[in-house]
């Protein structure tokens, strides 16, 4: 299971990386915005994408839309972990095809639940 | 105070104008063109004086507002330098908050990452020793194996002591590291104070400018001036807002993960 973590704050990437490691996912890579993440996703065989929303360069929602529009990546499971908490934004993410949405600050339990749920559904 | 004085002056000016105008009509009707001509000169002078006074007030208000804006840098140099101003200071403070919180998070995680292998090592050794111990209790051990266990037990107790001390120390340091909350909180409060000051000075400035524009006839209503500046918040589609500070006071914002889950499940998720 190869996972890409996208967040502009290195601290948050590290926290997510640590939480994922606790859940048994040790093969993770990091990117600091959508622009860096997209080529990594296109060239690497990632199984799962965890992304923030608000980032310079390319935002997480734009990254999600680009992923869904890409023939090869369209079915990649995407979990959004973000401080963006407006209803409109959550609906926008859902409509863009997000698989899970976690608001910051979050608990290890919340992250675990969402990830397990996504894999259950994706199968 | 300043505002009352300004209003008072403006009212006085309007009254003088009215009086002059009445007298002018009277003089014109009684064909006293010489006095009428003098009155017109007086009118112009009064208007000019009023404008001069208003411009003076604006200049003074502008000066005060700029001083209170805490931009005390060298504004005469080109380009203007605000290296020493409080605004620049505020940006520095905010950058300080970012670096301090980052450091605290990094140090905390360093400590956790250093502690995890200690705890894991002690756990593994204790499980392995317990198995040996059970073998000893079941009398399955040769005297040679017992001698080995004897030394291992001695080592383990040593490891346990130093390991526990190390873990304790790391935990203490993690707790200490949370002191950043206090430090950044104080810095943020100062910046918030500065922002409120600047905001009220800005409102003051807009009010003064509006009054002068009204008096000089550039715009007929001071309120329009303020309204024209109060354009609704522009929002770029897809752009984030960052953490919600007052999520519980806004209807268009969720306040926790349960709300997110409810919203998503209502959309068929």
UniProtKB/TrEMBL annotation, chain B:
Q: Which residues bear the site annotation Enhances dephosphorylation of CheY-P?
A: 186
Fetch the InterPro entries from UniProt.
Answer: Chemotax_Pase_CheZ, CheZ_family_phosphatases
The protein's superkingdom reads Bacteria
**Family matches, as Pfam families:** CheZ (PF04344)
Q: Does the keyword Hydrolase apply?
A: yes
Q: What is the predominant subcellular site recorded for this chain? A: cytoplasm
A single GO molecular function, which one? phosphoprotein phosphatase activity
EC number annotated for this UniProt entry? 3.1.3.-
Role of this protein: Plays an important role in bacterial chemotaxis signal transduction pathway by accelerating the dephosphorylation of phosphorylated CheY (CheY-P).
Q: Know the name of this protein?
A: Protein phosphatase CheZ
């Amino acid at each position: 299971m190869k996972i890409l973590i996208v967040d502009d704050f290195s601290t948050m990437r590290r926290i997510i990386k640590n939480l994922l490691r606790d859940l048994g996912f040790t093969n993770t890579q990091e990117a600091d915005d959508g622009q860096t993440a997209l080529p990594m996703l296109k060239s690497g065989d990632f199984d799962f994408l965890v992304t923030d929303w608000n980032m310079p360069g390319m935002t997480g929602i734009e990254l999600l839309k680009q992923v869904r529009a890409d023939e090869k990546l369209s079915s990649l499971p995407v979990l959004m972990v973000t401080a963006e908490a407006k209803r409109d934004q959550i609906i926008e993410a859902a409509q863009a095809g997000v698989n899970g949405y976690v608001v910051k600050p979050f608990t290890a339990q919340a992250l675990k639940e969402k990830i397990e749920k996504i894999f259950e559904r994706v199968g | 105070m300043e505002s009352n004085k300004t209003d008072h002056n403006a009212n006085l000016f309007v009254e003088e104008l009215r009086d002059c105008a009445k007298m002018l009509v009277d003089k014109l009707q009684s064909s006293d063109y010489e006095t009428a001509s003098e009155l017109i000169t007086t009118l112009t002078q009064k208007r000019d004086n009023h404008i001069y006074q208003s411009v003076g007030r604006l200049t003074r208000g502008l000066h005060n507002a700029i001083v209170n804006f805490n931009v005390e840098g060298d504004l005469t140099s080109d380009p203007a330098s605000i290296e020493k101003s409080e605004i620049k200071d505020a940006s520095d403070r905010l950058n300080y908050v970012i670096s301090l919180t980052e450091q605290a998070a990094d140090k905390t995680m360093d400590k956790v990452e250093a502690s995890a292998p200690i705890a894991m090592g002690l756990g593994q050794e204790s499980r392995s020793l317990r198995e040996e111990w059970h073998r000893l209790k079941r009398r399955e051990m040769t005297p040679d194996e017992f001698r080995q266990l004897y030394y291992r037990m001695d080592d383990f107790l040593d490891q346990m002591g130093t390991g526990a001390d190390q873990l304790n120390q790391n935990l203490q340091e993690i707790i200490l590291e949370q002191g950043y909350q206090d430090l950044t909180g104080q810095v943020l409060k100062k910046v918030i104070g500065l922002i409120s000051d600047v905001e009220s000075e800005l409102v003051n400035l807009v009010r003064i400018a509006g009054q002068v524009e009204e008096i000089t006839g550039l715009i007929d209503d001071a309120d329009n001036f303020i309204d024209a500046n109060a354009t609704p918040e522009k929002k770029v589609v897809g752009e984030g807002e960052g953490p919600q500070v007052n999520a519980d006071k806004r209807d268009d914002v969720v306040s926790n993960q349960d709300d997110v889950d409810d919203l998503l499940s209502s959309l068929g998720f």
